[in-house]
Amino acid sequence: MGERVVITGLGVCAPNGVGLQEFTKALQDGISGIRFHKTLEDLKFGCQVAGEPQLTDDLISQYFTPLQLRGLNASGILYGVIAGTDAWNDARLPIAEKDTPDWDSGIIFGTGILGVDKFRESIHLVDSQNVRRLGSTTVLQTMASGISAYLGGIFGCGNQVTTNSSACTTGTEGILMAYDRIASGKAQRVLTGSCSDSGPYVWGGFDAMRILPRQYNANPTEASRPMSATAAGFVPGSGAGALVLESLESALKRGAKIYAEVLGGAVNSGGQRGEGSMTAANSVAVQRCIREALVHARIQNSDVDSINGHLTATAKDPTEIENWAKALDRKGKDFPYVNSFKGLFGHCLAASGSIESVGVVLQFSKEQLFGNANCQEIHPEIAKLVDTSRIPRETQAHSPKIIAKASFGFGDVNACVIFKSYSD
Amino acid sequence: MPKEERYSKLKEIIKIYLPEDVSVEDITEESHFTKELNINSANLVDIVLDVEDAFDIRLENEDMDEMQTVKDALQIIALKLADT
């Protein structure tokens, strides 16, 4: 058993709320961040709704210097730096001195693809024989690790500074990577999180796969329907979530506010074998991942009070619920409470795991379970396994002790993390 | 364009690339971009692009190599403007 690991800072840049206060209120009151996007209509997308954080120039200038903003055309970096800076400040961590890095603090901040708009800009310059006009930051904005590089430089982190990437599992996986690094004594603090760019070039491939809803362009807030009988596909989203993970020892020494404890978890892959494929999860692996997470966290199946699922609002939601039911061996009224925040902001892809984990952790401090949106009529296959009382449609008072959070991604990869309310 | 105007236009360009502890008043004609003004060497290519846009000239690789100080930059700009 290594060091205990706690969460001491949170930050978020989500489609339905930038900053903890706005985001918390949106989750509590069921405020949607899914909007109609004219650009997607003009480009003839089937799905013309998406979740995109609402930023203003004024807000952006609070996080970036004029020099950093010069030629900056990477929305993922905007979101990641805003969420990451908020989490760092929320944890009341200092910025390293000019000449000495903070050797005990690191960054593990993931993304799927970074700087897509900058990359597009570069392609046009290169193709018109103007490579000399690319400027000095094209590489920094388009390398995957650009986001950890920006954050590491802002705070002066001297421990591991890296970017993980595992599709829609990225954010949840990053939390476990940060946990491992701290639990093994290799770092005292890790700012972990993930970000995902906005825009047609990121979302287009999913539209082409015909897995996005096409019939809600006139009713964007109703488009994302996790666990619903009328779920019609996932709504693409973007943004960033960030969490400061810290050894309990360091947190206590600093007198830091502690949101929750990370007990551990598991990551695995279905190997694209059995029913698993590049795009579909192997249920055997999903169940195994959940069970391994419980074992690693040293808890029993019955200890899980609530689940925050991957639950994207595709036809796979019932399969996911069945996997939870089998892995935990619980059903009906005995099934844990379950929610998905995607009904309010869509599927933020690489950023989903971190944004949703920030929401999960807020449930501890608010002593609430945030409600599921657009799920008035629960999918019949889900209703067979789970008593409807376990699927809150409105935010309700609840003091969870243990919450399990899972994310699954293309490539048949899975991650499940176990959070616990903190008590000394 | 008189020299004074070129100089102030150049200072305006350089300003954004200065680190926090260097102010625009610290810029003199003799200032070395990286050694004295402490400008990140990676940003020299951005200064070149900004100069090209501001003065509507084109700098070649050799010009960039020679552009070590503010004075170097002013000379290259004057030369290019005279050419056009």
How do the helices and strands line up, and which of them pair or pack?
The complex is a heterodimer of chains A (424) and B (84).
Chain A: E1 5-14, E2 17-18, H1 20-29, E3 34-36, H2 38-42, E4 49-51, H3 57-61, H4 66-69, H5 75-90, E5 105-111, H6 116-127, H7 138-142, H8 146-155, E6 161-162, H9 170-183, E7 189-196, H10 200-208, E8 239-247, H11 248-254, E9 260-269, H12 283-297, E10 306-308, H13 317-328, E11 337-339, H14 342-345, H15 352-366, E12 368-369, H16 380-385, E13 396-397, E14 402-409, E15 413-420
Parallel strand pairs in A: 5-6, 5-7, 10-11, 10-14
Antiparallel strand pairs in A: 1-2, 1-8, 1-9, 3-4, 7-8, 9-15, 12-13, 14-15
Chain B: H1 3-15, H2 44-55, H3 61-66, H4 70-83
Helix pairs in contact in B: 1-2, 1-4
Main sheet attributes: strand count, strand direction, barrel closure of chain B: none
Proper CATH architecture of the largest domain in chain A: 3-Layer(aba) Sandwich
Give the low-pLDDT segments of chain B. none
Proportion of helical residues of chain A = 25-40%
Shape of chain B: globular
Biggest interface goes to: A-B, 8 and 7 residues
Mean pLDDT of chain A: 97
Structural class of chain B: mainly alpha
Specify the number of helices of chain A.
16
Rg of chain B computed from alpha carbons, rounded to a whole number of angstroms? 12 Å
User: How does the helix and strand content of chain A classify structurally?
Assistant: alpha/beta
Number of strands of chain B: 0
